[in-house]
Amino acid sequence: MTAVAASSPSLFGSGLVARRVDGARMRTVPQILDALARAWDFPDHFGRNRDALDDCMRDLPTGLRTPEGTPSTGWLTIVDDASQVLADEPDAFEWFAESVDFWRDSYRDRRFAVLLVDDDPGAVRARWSDVGVRVTDPAEEI
To answer: Which end of the chain has the least Cβ crowding within 10 Å, N or C?
Structure first.
């Protein structure tokens, strides 16, 4: 699921382990690679390229616990300032948006979501929809 909102909803009791990244620091592909590698603690052998990103995002660690101490039922990446993602490399945006769907489809038995947070959620929703990615309201999904 990819959802967009003006602010992050409460995740208490959701069962998701969440990591937060800053879209203002993800304006280029190398910045996306670095931000997600840091957020999800990718292994040292992470190749810092698009294929390696796909591999790591489809193999996130299991056995994590939620802040409440319960076993995780899935993963959530919260992207603040989502309108800034790939602002300096707009030609790469379609790749990234489609990658999120690809990662999500890899987790058939667990939940995987990306929450896009921005002051202008309508513009973010339109940008993702323009490349064919369906976005929802987080209250409907998370």
So the answer is: N
The predicted structure's pLDDT at residue 44: 94
Q: Provide long-range contacts, Cβ within 8 A and 24+ apart, for 95-98.
A: 95/50, 96/29, 96/32, 97/2, 97/128, 97/131, 97/132, 97/133, 98/131, 98/132, 98/133
DSSP 65-133: B-TTSSBP-EEEEEEETGGGTTTT-GGGHHHHHHHHHHHHHH-SSSEEEEEEE-S-HHHHHHHHHHTT-
Across the beta sheet with 74-80, what order do the strands follow? 2-5, 111-117, 74-80, 16-22
Distance CA 58, CA 78 (A): 17
What is the distance between the alpha carbons of residues 51 and 11, in angstroms, rounded to a whole number?
30
Low-confidence ranges of the chain (pLDDT < 50): none
Q: For position 129, what pLDDT does the model report? A: 94
* pTM exceeds 0.85: yes
